[in-house]
Amino acid sequence: MTESPSILLRDDADGIATLTLNRPDQRNALSVGLMTVLERALDAIAQDPSVKVVILAAAGPAFCAGHDLREVRADQRREAYEALFAQCSRLMVKLVRLAKPVIARVHGVATAAGCQLVASCDLAVAADGARFATPGVNIGLFCSTPMVALSRNVARKQAMEMLLTGDMIPADRAREIGLVNRVVPAVELEAATLALARQIASKSPLTVAIGKEAFYRQAELDLEAAYAYASGVMTRNMLARDAGEGIDAFLAKRAPRWTGE
Q1: Contact 200, 101 (CB under 8 A)
Q2: Highest CATH level, class, for 205-251
Q3: Which pLDDT does position 43 carry in this prediction?
């Protein structure tokens, strides 16, 4: 199935690229078409030095209701299912591997692969009315791929409760268990997310890229290996011009001038 590129909108300003899922009538379900254009947008952003931070947002009443179940049932071949879940997994990994922070701006519901999308972003700001769930168990399809991202964000028993019950949790509970960073009134969601993005965009893009990659890599290592790896990263970072500039600026009590080198 093919869809128009207008199912994903991109707006750039002040070093921040906002990608907006734009299938509001389908609650922004992750069709093959939407995942394809989202992957392409992330690939383009990865090569765009003007972009320092990405905001992932959505149009309409919901953030993302997961996979497009009508599309899923339209082709019941094993090969189709394998291709679908491989593409979804590739998209989520791409979010993590992107050398620029990604902030989810969440309103409405984020369920199944939509909850996975939130968990795959580096940060998440949610409206106070937002709700989250991995409800696949309710329809006989366990949220196994969403489980990968969810279990890397929240404690095991909290993740298992969401996965085994399929229950919706409110935004405040999502913040308590670590699925989102901040909860704000709905009318403040856009401004609050933008303020966070601008704060991060003011940092050295090189330093942020080094730090994001290191964060995810060290998390998969044992303690000694993590320290050995992080020590190497710190050494490489220290040799960068931006580190020298940042330290000199701090000592001179002036604003740093980042070069990205």
Answers
A1: yes
A2: mainly alpha
A3: 97
Q: Global pTM?
A: 0.94
Long-range contacts of 140-145 (CB under 8 A, 24+ apart): 143/112, 143/115, 143/116, 145/85, 145/88, 145/89, 145/92, 145/113, 145/116
Q: Can you tell me the distance from the alpha carbon of 177 to that of 169, in angstroms, rounded to the nearest whole number?
A: 10
Assess contact for 86 and 51: CB atoms under 8 A. Answer: no
Q: Quickly tell me which residue has 């750039």 as its tokens.
A: 12
Per CATH, which fold does 5-201 belong to? 2-enoyl-CoA Hydratase; Chain A, domain 1 (3.90.226)
**Domain boundaries defined on the chain:** 5-201, 205-251
Q: Would you say 61 and 27 are in contact if contact means Cβ atoms under 8 Å apart? A: yes
Mark the ranges of the chain whose per-residue pLDDT is less than 70.
1-5
Cα(257)–Cα(204) distance, rounded to whole angstroms? 9
